[in-house]
Design goal:
Shape: globular
Number of domains: 1
Number of helices: 8
Largest sheet: 7 strands, parallel
Structural class: alpha/beta
Strand order of the largest sheet: 3-2-1-4-5-6-7
Radius of gyration: 19 Å
Number of strands: 7
Distance between the termini: 60 Å
Mean pLDDT: 93
CATH class: Alpha Beta
Order of helices and strands: EHEHEHEHEHEHHEH
C-alpha cells in the first residue's frame, strides 16, 4: 500500500518499534508527525527520514503521561485533516512483583498504556468516521493473553489494549475505518532495559528484531488482518483460542448458578 499527501502520526517514535514504523511509513510515502519525549532523538530521526525519503516530517515533543502534552497531540489528531493513520505505539513496562513496585510505577503504566492510547483514539475517531476513512494501529503484546510473576500491571494494560481494540473493531465493521492490533512477543527495544529485566538476560533465540516485527505487522496490515501475531507460525492457535473464549462466554449466559456450587 502506498500513500500520497497523507500523514501518519506515530507515538513513541524516537526509538525502537516506533522509529521503525516511522521509517517504513516514510518509505511508503507518508508524511509524518513523530511524537516522543526526547527532542534530540526526534530531531535526528526527522532529518534522516526527510533526507532519505523526501517526505515532510514534523516533530511533536510530548510526554503522553502529562495532561498538557497529551492534549497537544489530541488537538492535532482531532483537527489535522491530513492525518489518516494513527500508530498508538508508545508504551511503558515496569516488571516486578506488585508488592515491591512503587505505586507510581503502576500508575505510569496505566497512564501511558491505557489512558493515552484511549484518549488519542477518542480524539481521531470522530474525524475518521466523518470522512469514512482512516487507519489505527494499536501495539499491544503477547502478554495481552498471558501474565507471569512481575507482569500483573503490564499484562493488565495490554489485555485492555486487546479487548478495547476488538470491541472498537466491532463498532467499525460497517465503516471505512480500520483498526489493527499488533501483538509482538519479545522484541529488541529499550523498553526491556528500562523495565527491570534487561534484554541481555532473556533467551536470545526468542528475541525478534524491531525491523522484522514491524515488517511482519505491516504485511498483516496490508492483508487487512484485525489481529497480527508477528511471531506465531500456526494461525490456527489463535483461532482455537478465540473459539474457546467465545464458547466460554456463551456458557456464562444463564441465570442459574452452575450445578457444581450446589445452589438450588
Amino acid at each position: 500500500m502506498t500513500a500520497s499527501k497523507k500523514t501518519a502520526l506515530v507515538t513513541g517514535a524516537s526509538s525502537g518499534i516506533g522509529a521503525v514504523y516511522a521509517d517504513r511509513l516514510a518509505a511508503r510515502g507518508y508524511d509524518l508527525i513523530l511524537v516522543a519525549r526526547r527532542a534530540d532523538r526526534l530531531s535526528a530521526l526527522s532529518q534522516k527520514l526527510s533526507e532519505a525519503y523526501g517526505v515532510k516530517v514534523r516533530q511533536l515533543v510530548a510526554d503522553l503521561a502529562k495532561e498538557v502534552d497529551l492534549a497537544k497531540v489530541e488537538d492535532v489528531l482531532a483537527n489535522d485533516s491530513s492525518v489518516t493513520l494513527l500508530v498508538n505505539n508508545a508504551g511503558l513496562a515496569r516488571l516486578s512483583p506488585l508488592a515491591k513496585t512503587p505505586v507510581s510505577d503502576s500508575m505510569a503504566q496505566l497512564n501511558l498504556n491505557i489512558t493515552a492510547l484511549t484518549r488519542l483514539t477518542h480524539a481521531v475517531l470522530p474525524r475518521f468516521l466523518a470522512g469514512n476513512e482512516g487507519d489505527i494501529i494499536n501495539v499491544a503484546s503477547v502478554l495481552s493473553v498471558h501474565a507471569w510473576e512481575g507482569s500483573a500491571v503490564y499484562s493488565g494494560t495490554k489485555a485492555y489494549v486487546l479487548t478495547f481494540s476488538r470491541g472498537l473493531q466491532d463498532e467499525l465493521k460497517n465503516t471505512g475505518v480500520r483498526l489493527q492490533v499488533v501483538l509482538p512477543a519479545t522484541t529488541a527495544t529499550e523498553i526491556w532495559d528500562e523495565s527491570g529485566i534487561p534484554l541481555s538476560t532473556l533467551r536470545q533465540e526468542s528475541v525478534m528484531s524491531t525491523e522484522n516485527m514491524v515488517d511482519a505487522a505491516l504485511v498483516g496490515f496490508d492483508r487487512g488482518e484485525k489481529l497480527t501475531w508477528p511471531s506465531v507460525a500456526d494461525e490456527s492457535l489463535w483461532e482455537q483460542y478465540d473459539a474457546a473464549r467465545a464458547a466460554l462466554f456463551a456458557a456464562t449466559q444463564t441465570g442459574t448458578p452452575a450445578p457444581r456450587y450446589g445452589i438450588a
